[in-house]
Write a structure and sequence with these properties.
This protein is mostly helical. 62% of the residues lie in helices and 10% in strands.
Length: 81
Amino acid sequence: MLRGKESWPRCVRIARTRAEVLGACAGWTAATLDELTPVVYDDVAVERHRWGAPDLGAHLIKLAREHRASECGGLWRLTQR
């Protein structure tokens, strides 16, 4: 039971991050992970962005699997649904 309580803030962060990823990508034609990281994690100290980038990459991969984003040559784009 405690485990569920501990993971709740992480679930909220994950959902919020996915929304932030979609919001950040919406204004761009295409962007690299390095370009998106400071936009998505604008509420996090710049020194910590290097730890957020892999997590952001995982969110982008999930969106790609859902056919909501695509990647080509390191550039990420939102896809039309």
